[in-house]
Amino acid sequence: MEYIAVFAIGTSSMKGVLMNQQAEMLHTDSALLDTHFGSSGQVEQHPYDWWKGLKEITSKWWKSGVDPKQIVMITCMGQMENVIPISKDPECLSLSFYCLTFLVYCATKIHTLFPMELL
Predict the structure, then answer these.
(1) CB 51 within 8 A of CB 88
(2) Is the dihedral of CA 113, 115, 118, 119 positive or negative?
(3) Residue 98: its pLDDT value, please?
(4) Residue 67, pLDDT above cutoff 90
(5) What gap in Å lies between CA 53 and CA 13, rounded to an integer?
(6) 96 band by pLDDT with thresholds 50, 70 and 90
(7) Cβ of 57: how many Cβ atoms within 10 Å?
(8) Alpha helices in the chain (DSSP H)
(9) Considering the entire predicted model, what is its pTM?
(10) What domains are there in the chain, each with its CATH number?
(11) How far apart are CA 30 and CA 13, in angstroms?
(12) Distance from first CA to last CA of the chain, Å, rounded?
């Protein structure tokens, strides 16, 4: 049997769903994530925590008898889109969510630097 693995990164947890090609959900699992809220409205998570969450969820699937070679598609989603740098040293990575508060901050900063009359 072939499977599709779907992962959703949320504010408080990562959710994982394993489904077959008929979209029947065979496993649904989650792993808690640490989210840090800054005084200026920033919201941050560490990508290494996402990796740990993914390993926690998939290890449950492997223990239930799912063979990793049977997964033919993997998709990840969240409330943001990011480029995640990969390194052998997980402690050197950190990441800010591109959430609404960050977008408002960016839009305000851009408008200050480049007023509409200059565009």
Answers:
(1) no
(2) positive
(3) 46
(4) yes
(5) 8
(6) very low
(7) 22
(8) 47-63, 100-113
(9) 0.66
(10) 3-118 (3.30.420.40)
(11) 6
(12) 55
**Sequence letter at residue 117:** E
**74 phi/psi in degrees, rounded to 5:** -130, 135
- The structure tokens listed for 68 are 């990793």
- The DSSP code sequence of 71-97 is EEEEEEEESS-------S-GGG--EE-
What pLDDT was estimated at residue 89? 58
C-alpha distance from residue 23 to each of 4, 57, 67, 113 (Å)? 8, 19, 18, 48
* Complete edge-to-edge strand list for the sheet that includes strand 95-96: 36-37, 43-45, 95-96
Burial (CB count <10 Å: 0-12, 13-18, 19+), residue 118: exposed
**What pLDDT, on a 0 to 100 scale, did the predictor assign at position 75?**
83
Alpha-carbon gap, residue 15 to 44, rounded angstroms: 18
